[in-house]
Write a structure and sequence with these properties.
The chain has a domain of 106 residues. By secondary structure, it is an all-alpha fold. The protein contains 8 helices and no strands.
């Protein structure tokens, strides 16, 4: 009752604190929302930790932890926006350059192998963007470069067909309507 709005009727401070406490109670009071909140906080914690240390072994460790946490989650409960931000944060141009200078081929290949399963949880355009970032890392590693090139090609085809299919269906439907119209016109002209 300390922050109840009736205790501070002239200020917004009591009201805003009361709303924050009420929101916390709603989240923590429900087992399901509390579990999701804890998982999101852990993922966010990984995201915040990432800025303090940046080298290949630390990144590999963080990606393994991310993979472990994602494996525990139901795919429909994953915050894809947060996952995208975490992965994008790891693969800025500066960090890619740092990895290229200081990491060996085995570490770079391991980074790519750890990232690919996580990337597949994202929408196609975000997948392609992150795979393009990874392609810079593996230019000097033939096997990994081939795999990344194959993945880029697969994603580009999927994006193309997702954009094109509605138009194909539209044109097919329009063509069928025109055929039915002309057929109707022809059948009425012969009577």
């Amino acid at each position: 009752m300390r922050y109840h709005p009736d205790k501070y009727p002239d200020t917004d401070l009591g009201h805003s604190r009361f709303l924050l406490i009420q929101e916390a109670y709603n989240i923590l009071g429900n087992e399901y929302t509390r579990r999701n909140y804890d998982r999101e906080c852990r993922l966010l914690g990984l995201h915040q930790q990432a800025s303090t240390q940046y080298n290949a072994p630390a990144l590999i460790s963080e990606l393994k932890e991310l993979k472990r946490q994602l494996a525990q989650l139901n795919p429909s409960h994953i915050d894809r926006g947060l996952l995208y931000q975490i992965l994008l944060h790891h693969f800025t141009q500066d960090k890619i350059n740092s990895l290229l200078l200081h990491a060996d081929a085995e570490e770079l290949n391991q980074i790519v192998q750890l990232c690919l399963p996580s990337i597949t949880l994202l929408p196609l355009a975000q997948q392609l963007e992150l795979v393009n970032h990874l392609s810079i890392l593996v230019q000097e590693i033939p096997e990994a470069a081939t795999e990344i090139t194959r993945e880029q090609s697969r994603l580009k085809k999927k994006i193309f067909w997702r954009k094109t299919m509605p138009w194909i269906w539209f044109l097919l439907t329009l063509g069928l309507c025109l055929i039915m119209y002309w057929h109707g016109q022809l059948s009425t002209s012969f009577k």
